[in-house]
Request: fold
Amino acid sequence: MALWGCLVLRTSLLSAQQSAGTALPLSLQQVWQRSDVYSKAIQMQKVKVQRSKEEIRDAVVERLPELSVGGNFEQATNIPVYEHGLFSAPTQHEVIHTLYKIGADGYLNIYNGSKTNLKIAEEKTHDKIAIEQQNLTISDIRYRAAARYLELQRSMIFKNLMIKDIADQEKQLAEIRQFLKNGVVLKSDVLRVELKLSRQKLSLVTIENDISLSNQKLNILIGEPDEQIVIPTDKAGPDALTLGTYESYLSEAMAKSFQYRISAQETELKKIELKNVKANVSLKVGLYGDFYYANPQIFLYPYNPHLYSLGIAGVRASFPLSAIYLNRHKEKIAELELKNQELEHSDTEDNVRKQVKEAYLRYKEALIGIDVARVNVEQAKENYRIVNNTYFNQSSLITDLLDAGVQLLQTRFDLATAEMAASLQYYQLQNVIGNL
Reply:
């Protein structure tokens, strides 16, 4: 069993050495820059923003006059005139057989209840929502990237701690074997230490697999191949991160939270929709014109077979009387939708406040957890030192020594976990308030 563990350890160490040449050192900021470029979710949001820009331009173009050109070419037969009844031979009345017309017409809207302006305002609001949704997606992806980065960083810390612990255990095993030769300890002591060492080496294999999995998840976010080894370069732990007051974070969230700003724009959109419904009951005024060439001239009597042109221009006004009673329920529906959206906006504000409060308290809690974990490490180190001395002085059992070693390694794992959890909780707080 011990021989198998040694082979596994040697294989993992060789693998790490071989991959070191292709390792890619990255800071968290560099990871975010890459995720902003390669994340498919962010790319889809960017397409939506581009589309919203085009929809604004399309709405603005509606202010331009509507123009059209057309023409027709016709062949007409003579007109039979039945002077003596339907069943008698008719007299053929000669007509102009070839008729054609070519012209253009246009219409320029002057006023239609400000529906064009409301359409432009609506598309601009959609654009603001798309931009905020893109920012929200970027923030969420950055938080996910931070989680993967810290997860990878924690696993690498675990790996280094485990390798060091295995090296210490091997030295300790050599000492115990020497004590066995001198008849100071029992054979069972050696077997127990060897068993623990084999388990530690198996745990190292698990950690290596965790690193590989975390690495792949991070690579997917930043657009790297699955096999690319990423080495986190940021200092472990939240020592470089600052903690402000709850009131300052809450004030910042109300000004910058993406969820809150999206909700505010959706409320503005409902207001515009209500105005648009009210505009159904409004006067519509526009300029129109028509110009054409035609032959023959049958517009005025007497007719003649000559080419002529005619231009007409005027003002067209209309008022939809039926909209006075048909629009009443539509307007009421729009008012209720606005009221519902205002309630949703208020609920969003409540949720943002709750998220800020929770993230803030959890971050403070995580910082306290780091202090506790550091104290535990020092206590476990001292306990291990004492038990190690007493064991080799034959004052304690091998089980006490093994337990003390396990506790020391576990407290170091707990400290690394606490540091990574505090950092992740900090980024969660920044995500909630709109700072990522």
Observations:
- Residues 71 and 102 are 4 Å apart (CA to CA).
- The radius of gyration is 40 Å.
- Strands lie at 24-26, 66-75, 79-81, 91-93, 98-111, 230-232, 284-295, 308-318.
